[in-house]
Target: Acyl-CoA thioesterase
Amino acid sequence: MRAKGVYATEIDVTVPFFDVDSMEVVWHGHYVKYLEVARCALLDELGHNYVRMKETGYAWPIIDLQLRYARPARFGQTLVVRAELVEWRNRLKIHYTLSDAATGERLTRASTIQVAVRLADGEMLLVSPAVFVDDVERHLASSFPRSTGPTP
Model:
């Protein structure tokens, strides 16, 4: 069973012509681009986007990507891409759901895992840097003020 995220954001994407093949179906590789747009929106909301990552001295490469296609997305279709924060203390794990905006039908599920790499020496860390954890948990605390907050 898929873990439920503790914080989520959604974006809309209207499938452009240049993302589809001759059958007007989104080419499978373009889904990764839609995930990236949703991930950037989520990281912006959490207060630790890619600019902040670089400023704090870390890169966060994707080390694992999984996609499960249930139904094709098509030219002109508006998709809702939901990105959910699942883990952040040892690695950054995000789950995604791509759905048809008009019907709510799920088209694709995905997940990404990213790890912190120190820019100064290229060393991969086994835990997330404190500055990242602090930014995320500060945002979560402000989003859930009456609870002790979610756990990763």
